[in-house]
TrEMBL record:
GO terms for molecular function: carboxypeptidase activity; transferase activity. It comes from Mucilaginibacter celer. The active site is at residues 145, 153. This is 2-dehydro-3-deoxyphosphooctonate aldolase. CDD domains: YkuD_like (cd16913). Belongs to the YkuD family.
Amino acid sequence: MPKLIALLLSLLLIAPPKTGIPDSKRASDVREKVWPKLQQELKSKGFASNGLQIYIRIIKDLSALELWAKQGNKYQLFKNYEVCSYSGGLGTKTRDGDGKSPEGFYTIQPKQLNPVSNYYLAINVGYPNKVEQLKGYTGSAIMVHGHCESIGCYAMTDARIEEIYTMVYQAFAGGQQQIRVDIFPFRMEEARLKTYAAYYPNQTPFWRTLKPGYDLFEKNRIPAEYHVKGKDYAF
């Protein structure tokens, strides 16, 4: 029994008063293991690990999670991770229990980190966002997490989520207030959009609202700021 109690205590959240970032022994041990390696990789690619600022972009049809880091005034691709599993194919989530993974523009803050997740380590992407709330979409707790299995989330292998989670933690610890997570069904060039429109005609009007945000990032290498017009994204 004492060993069991010790194990449970070791997994309890550590409340760090200085950062306000949820933490646990599990997450701390992971950082101790992977952060030195990530710092070396950042340095070798010309990024500073101090004052780290990051941006995450997911491309569903490629099963790709791109992790971008700020270099000067723009973001440059740091690393590309394969998404182990996501459910529901292309097309965004609209209701609780539909088994779909969301598409859209999301923002994460420190409180959205879960260092004691049942899926190892997890980051809540913030679904439903303002647009989705206005549309009456339902569902919650949509995560990027470990354990390589998903029902509506974006699952990574444990080794991959260790790096992604640590980079997010270190960006927050370094002073970044919020991190954008943009999720697209595919790379949204016009030709590709037209191709997919033939197979997903009902999704095409919604995808058209995502394209300007995708294009602005491709042009400027800065996450596009959007506002809500009616019940849609506007830029």
